């Protein structure tokens, strides 16, 4: 997976830059309201995904749908429908089926972390700087918020952390983001550590830089209006809607 991410990183970055220009021209207009999740973050991830999977509507729609399979309240009927759709997509080209599955999983893996983290980060920046022009903001170096709150891991050997003993085979919940952590600790854990570092770390950091660069050229003011969170999305803190007003 890491090789495929590296192989397409230039295309991902170019697609991000192009999509940002389109979104700013189309969506970010004075005296309007926009919804950050559906109108900004998701289209941006869809553009990045098109650099990873075959750029056709079926593959990109599946990238959007596959993460819903992890919802504990998704109906059996919907699970079967999505599973059948994946099977039909892979079966359309049996010789390339394994590669298709690999790329599909790679793009779907980053959907919720990217969309949720970008949306929440922009909401947080705008909420903390009411009535300030985007070009006047002191933008953070990295995302100030993350939609991924924890990861579960299986302990591989005897280990002790802060006087707590963990044994081989035990499931351990590792909180990567917490109100109990300092801002620096949360930022440091944003993409994980070591062998489990997020595969999308490099492109995510670059895209945040592009977003900040684009927003920093704008004299628009953004005022958060409403935010709605999905109640069943562990381990994610996932916004379903974030409305902001632009003046």
Structure description:
The chain has 247 residues and is of the alpha+beta class. 47% of the residues lie in helices and 15% in strands. It has helices at residues 2-7, 9-26, 36-49, 57-65, 76-91, 97-109, 111-128, 183-188, 201-216, and strands at residues 32-35, 150-154, 159-161, 164-166, 171-175, 222-229, 239-246. The strands form 3 sheets. Strands 1-7-6 form a 3-stranded antiparallel sheet. Helix 3 (36-49) crosses helix 7 and helix 4 packs across helix 6 (97-109). The chain is globular, with a radius of gyration of 19 Å. The mean pLDDT is 88.
Tag the structure with descriptive keywords.
alpha+beta; three-stranded antiparallel sheet; 47% helix; two-stranded antiparallel ribbon; 247 residues; globular
Question: How would you briefly describe this protein structure?
Answer:
Helix content is 47%, strand content 15%.
Explain the layout of strands and helices.
Layout (H helix, E strand, L loop, with lengths): L1 H6 L1 H18 L5 E4 H14 L7 H9 L10 H16 L5 H13 L1 H18 L21 E5 L4 E3 L2 E3 L4 E5 L7 H6 L12 H16 L5 E8 L9 E8 L1
Antiparallel strand pairs: 1-7, 2-5, 3-4, 6-7
Query: What is the strand arrangement across the widest sheet?
Result: 1-7-6
The geometry reads as globular
Mean pLDDT: 88
Radius of gyration: 19 Å
In total, the number of strands is: 7
Query: How many helical stretches?
Result: 9
Span between N and C termini? 42 Å
Low-confidence stretches: none
What's the helical proportion of residues?
Answer: 40-55%
Strand content: 5-15%
Structural class comes to alpha+beta
Note the main sheet.
Answer: 3 strands, antiparallel
Elements, N to C (H/E): HHEHHHHHEEEEHHEE
């Amino acid at each position: 997976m890491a090789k495929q991410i590296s192989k397409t990183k230039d295309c991902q970055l170019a697609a991000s830059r192009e999509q940002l220009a389109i979104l700013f021209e189309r969506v970010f207009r004075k005296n309007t309201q926009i919804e950050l999740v559906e109108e900004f973050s998701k289209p941006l991830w869809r553009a990045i995904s098109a650099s990873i999977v075959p750029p056709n509507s079926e593959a990109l729609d599946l990238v959007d749908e596959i993460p819903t399979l992890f919802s504990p309240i998704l109906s059996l009927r919907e699970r079967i429908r999505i599973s059948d759709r994946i099977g039909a997509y892979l079966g359309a080209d049996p010789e390339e089926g394994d590669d298709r599955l690999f790329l599909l999983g790679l793009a779907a893996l980053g959907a919720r972390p990217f969309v949720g983290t970008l949306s929440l980060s922009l909401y947080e920046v705008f909420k903390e700087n009411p009535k300030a022009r985007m070009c006047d903001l002191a933008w953070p170096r990295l995302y100030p918020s993350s939609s991924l709150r924890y990861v579960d891991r299986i302990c591989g050997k005897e280990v002790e952390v802060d006087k707590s003993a963990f044994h081989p085979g035990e499931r351990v919940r590792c909180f990567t983001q917490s109100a109990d952590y300092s801002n620096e600790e949360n930022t440091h854990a944003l993409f994980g550590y070591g062998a489990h570092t997020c595969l999308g770390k490099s492109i995510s950091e670059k895209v945040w830089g592009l977003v900040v660069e684009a927003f920093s050229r704008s004299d628009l003011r953004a005022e958060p209006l409403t935010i709605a969170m999905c109640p069943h999305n562990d381990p994610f803190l996932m916004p379903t809607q974030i409305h902001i007003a632009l003046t």
